[in-house]
Structures are given as structure tokens and as C-alpha cells.
Design goal:
This protein is of the alpha+beta class. Helices cover 28% and strands 27% of the residues.
Length: 182
């Protein structure tokens, strides 16, 4: 069987002193699950690996269960295939990520079955500060740096669907694709 390459985005680890997981321990955990070519990127919980498994739901459930048991927290992940991440980067809005001195750019990754349409109407951007665009399994969010304190991005934390979202800045998102393509 041909191996598929995946990216696991853990949510809620190494933030505010909660759910502290060392990346070396995370890498070992994924290797112990039988995955190959495992690597991590920065402390926010990004794991690249290969697996023969093709069923995303089965793979997600397995990873969440093992992480929850091993690290003693309620694990929630977003699983992204190499092809999905490539599509997310390629389908970004025109100019997204090109003015880093003026805007902060984020990708809001959605955990299945949540879709961009489920969330888009519930995030009300601040006019003149925020811009939100739907994408494939993701929302693209930019905010004016000079108006960052007025941004509505922080408001999503209190919304029920937030438990099914994990956020990565655009530089991290782009770098993860580069690492997957090496």
C-alpha cells in the first residue's frame, strides 16, 4: 500500500501553561502509533507523518484517542492531507499574506464536519480591520496590525464552534507545506 502524507494540527496544547507536550514526546507517540517519516514543527503541535490509512475519520479518531490517553488531556485535532494543504495554499485569496508589515494573516482550520459555510456568517469582521474569506476546509482571516486590538478574531473563542477550529498563522501554514514537499 502506498503511504499518504498527513499533517496533524493539535489544538489547545502548550498555550498558557496548559496541556504541555514536548515535541520529542509527541514525535515518539506518533512513531509508536506506527506512522513513518514523523516530524514536528514548532511548539504549537504540528506533526507531519506518513500512514497507509486512507480513512481520515478512522485516522483522526485513532490519533485523538492515543493522544488523550498518553498525555492525559481531551485531544482534538484537525487532520490535513498533503493534497488538502496544497489546495489551501493555492486557493488563498489574491494577495493574502503579501503585506506582513500591514496585516496579520491566519488560517482557521476547521475540524470535520464543520465547514466554512457553517462558520462564515457567525464571524462578524470589524469593518476596516478584519477580512474573512472562505476556502477549502479553512477560513482565511486577515487583520490590520494597527487595529489589531479592535479585531473580532478573539471573539470566536467564546463561540460554540470554536472547539472545532485550530488557528495557524500564514507563515506557519506556508512553512508546513514546504516541509511536506521536501
Amino acid at each position: 500500500m502506498a503511504e499518504n502524507q498527513y499533517l496533524t494540527l493539535l489544538r489547545g496544547i502548550n498555550v498558557g501553561g496548559n496541556n504541555i507536550i514536548k515535541m520529542t514526546d509527541l514525535k515518539s507517540c506518533f512513531e509508536n502509533m506506527g506512522f513513518t517519516s514523523v516530524s514536528t514543527y514548532i511548539q504549537s503541535g504540528n506533526v507531519i507523518f506518513k500512514s497507509d490509512e486512507k480513512d481520515n475519520t478512522r485516522l483522526t479518531n485513532k490519533i485523538e484517542q492515543v493522544l488523550s490517553d498518553r498525555f492525559k488531556y481531551s485531544s482534538r485535532i484537525v487532520l490535513v492531507s498533503h493534497q488538502q494543504l496544497k489546495k489551501i495554499i493555492e486557493q488563498a485569496p489574491v494577495g493574502f499574506g503579501t503585506e506582513p508589515d500591514k496585516y496579520r494573516y491566519d488560517a482557521l482550520f476547521l475540524k470535520e464536519p464543520l465547514t466554512p459555510d457553517d462558520v462564515l456568517g457567525k464571524i462578524i469582521p470589524r469593518e476596516g480591520v478584519d477580512k474573512v474569506y472562505p476556502g477549502p476546509e479553512v477560513l482565511y482571516f486577515s487583520r490590520l496590525i494597527s487595529g489589531a486590538s479592535q479585531s473580532k478574531l478573539s471573539k470566536i473563542i467564546s463561540m460554540p464552534f470554536y472547539q472545532n477550529i485550530t488557528i495557524r498563522n500564514w507563515n506557519t501554514t506556508s512553512r508546513l507545506l514546504e516541509l511536506m514537499e521536501k
